[in-house]
């Protein structure tokens, strides 16, 4: 029992602490995560390499399994941890790694790992710990959503149409179709057949344009700082705000520049 408590305390300090060692640990995990996401993106091209692909696949599965177990222990409340949508997405990604032969057609959903990483408190507690504004976080989340959307759709198109339709001969063709549809360029040299192909094309246009507009808005949005109002709880304020614009409470927003 004592060993279990010490392990939980140690993992909580690493995953949630502010010490230099904890920050270095989280940076290392994030860098490994980014390398894993790069593997997910390249997986459709690597699958033909057989045993090498499966060795990497199971190595990634082992890392993700250990990471998920460690996060669950560090969180403390397992039921609360399992209620998070991000947790279930990561568990599904792990399942596609553990059973690649059976769930290969769902492998394109592994790109969702990028979305879960950038939208996690773990990521922003590490990368954004020195920022008191939300602009970088908003841009990061919007960019991650757009990139994730592109690679999920590309993977779906590649899995569903490559080799079955002459317009999509490989992964690059699937990516080309996704980007041209998303930007509504529509050159017409790569199209998807049938009603389902048209419906998918429309979904890519609508979803992609919405995410792209969201990214532009986050870039052009005025600079804000995160400072919760003690009365109404409003979190975002102008850097030079004296009063909360929602309830009028006098604020004392720290200014490191003074």
UniProtKB/TrEMBL annotation:
Q: Which InterPro entries match?
A: K_chnl_dom, K_chnl_volt-dep_EAG/ELK/ERG, Volt_channel_dom_sf
Chief location category: membrane
Could you list this entry's UniProt keywords, alphabetically sorted.
Ion channel, Ion transport, Membrane, Transmembrane, Transmembrane helix, Transport
* Protein localization: Membrane
Lineage top rank: taxon:
Bacteria
One family name in Pfam for this protein: Ion_trans_2
Show the stretches that span the lipid bilayer. 25-46, 53-74, 86-104, 139-161, 195-216
The Potassium channel domain is annotated at: 148-219
Ligase found in the keyword field: no
Topology in membrane? Multi-pass membrane protein
Q: Which GO terms describe its biological process?
A: monoatomic ion transmembrane transport
Full protein name = Potassium channel family protein
The taxonomy runs: Bacteria, Pseudomonadati, Pseudomonadota, Alphaproteobacteria, Caulobacterales
């Amino acid at each position: 029992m004592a060993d279990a408590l010490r392990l939980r305390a140690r993992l909580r300090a690493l995953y949630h602490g502010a010490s230099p060692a904890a920050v270095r640990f989280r940076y290392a995990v994030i860098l490994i995560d980014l390398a894993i996401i790069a593997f997910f993106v390249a997986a459709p091209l690597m699958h033909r390499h057989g045993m090498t692909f499966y060795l990497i696949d199971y190595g990634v599965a082992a890392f993700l399994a250990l990471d998920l177990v460690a996060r669950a222990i560090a969180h403390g409340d397992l039921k609360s941890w399992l209620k998070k949508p991000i947790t279930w997405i990561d568990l599904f990604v792990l399942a596609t790694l553990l059973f690649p032969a059976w769930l290969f057609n769902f492998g394109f959903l592994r790109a969702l790992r990028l979305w879960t990483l950038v939208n996690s408190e773990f990521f922003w507690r590490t990368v954004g710990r020195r920022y008191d504004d939300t602009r970088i976080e908003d841009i990061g989340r919007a960019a991650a959503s757009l990139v994730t959307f592109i690679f999920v759709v590309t993977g779906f198109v590649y899995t569903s149409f490559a080799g079955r339709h002459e317009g999509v001969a490989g992964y690059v063709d699937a990516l080309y179709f996704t980007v041209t549809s998303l930007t509504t360029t529509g050159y017409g040299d790569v199209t998807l057949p049938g009603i389902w192909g048209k419906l998918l094309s429309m979904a890519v246009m609508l979803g992609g344009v919405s995410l792209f507009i969201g990214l532009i808005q986050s870039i052009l949005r005025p600079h804000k700082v995160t400072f919760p109002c003690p009365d109404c709880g409003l979190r975002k304020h102008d850097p030079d705000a004296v009063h909360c614009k929602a309830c009028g409470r006098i604020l004392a927003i720290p200014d490191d520049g003074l």
